[in-house]
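Figure-free illustration: sequence to structure, shown twice.
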Amino acid sequence: MLRKEWPLITNTILAQLAAGLFIFLAWDRIVLSRESLQLALTSTAQGLAWTGPVIVLAMLLSLFHLGKPFRAYRAMANLPVSWLSWEIFFSGAFLLLWIIFMVFESSDSIALPLMVAAGLVGLLNVISMSNIYSSTGRPGWKGTGTYLDFLGSTLVFGSVGAAFFL
């Protein structure tokens, strides 16, 4: 495998981890809050706080895959037609929603709709990544298997990460 592919692979794994971790911990928080709100908040807070640095690291590593990292902003110009542009958009939107969620979190607000929105945007990020690979036309990546692999990895990484923090 080419050395220049490692940042892309690491970006993909970390983005799936961030989305899965956030989704699993948000789900845990919703379920646990029925029993004890304080337990739900304290048991999931640390894991939810780590989601942001993980997605930031993923985004930074993706820059090293580009030939000219300082021109990365130009990838957003193709938003209507490019899955790569959508991945960048959803990564940024996930990070932004995470930041807003953490602000509400520090003010002792539950912010349930915001937490759900961030989880959905994280999932859309993973789906847009799988669309990039699926649309390449390569026989091993074309089809539903790519989507199942990406979503499956998100579930595995998210459940393991959530179990670690819980």
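We now fold a second protein in the same way, so the two outputs can be compared directly.
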Amino acid sequence: AMGIIFPIASVLRLFTFGMAAGMQPIIGYNYGAGQNIRVKDTFYYACKINFLAISVFVFLIMLFAGNIVGLFSKNDPDLVALGTHAMRIFLVMTSFDVVTILGGRYFQAIGKGMQAIMLGLLRQILIFVPVLYLLSIKYKLNGIWFSEPITEIIAAAVAALFIAKEMKSLSPKGRGQG
């Protein structure tokens, strides 16, 4: 089931990585030029568009989860049932990954590599591994499925705090004190 879910999750994230790659030079240029309103607008616009697009994709995957898993199952009804259940849980909060991914690229664009690295490690290692371990002990297989959405929410909340602090430091006319 994980062999089916991970590639689908990766395809969903490709859209976000593409948006991040397009957003990064725009933010970097405008940050360097002291155009902080453009910096903020670009980041927020990228987040909104991306969140909406990923939410639509996730909704469609939720609707057709059984059909999608069936494409990879060679008519194994147990795998289709398990994969459908797992996919719906595992991907339900994928839209929130937008904040973490775009936030990391935002910090890269403004030359704050430590924050960018922190956001990357945050989701992949610092949160996911302990959540996966603890939930798998307590809830077995369902704990594994729920580890991803819980990680997405925690990582997005922390990333949002980093970003909000940084955005607050940007003055309308210049770079501010941050």
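Summary for the second example: The two ends are 45 Å apart (CA to CA).
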